Amino acid sequence: MFVKKHQVTVSLLETDDLATLRSNQSMTISWDNGEAHYDGLFINEVGDHNVLTFVTDLLLPGSSKCESLPFSVGIGPAAELVFLDETSVGQALGGKAFTNQPCIEVRDKGENRLVGENNMLIVAALYSNPSNGTLSPDNSRYAPVREGIAQFRNLSIDKTGIGYRLSFTLMKRDGEHLIEMKVAALGEG
Question: What's the domain of life for this entry (predicted)?
Answer without folding.
Answer: Eukaryota
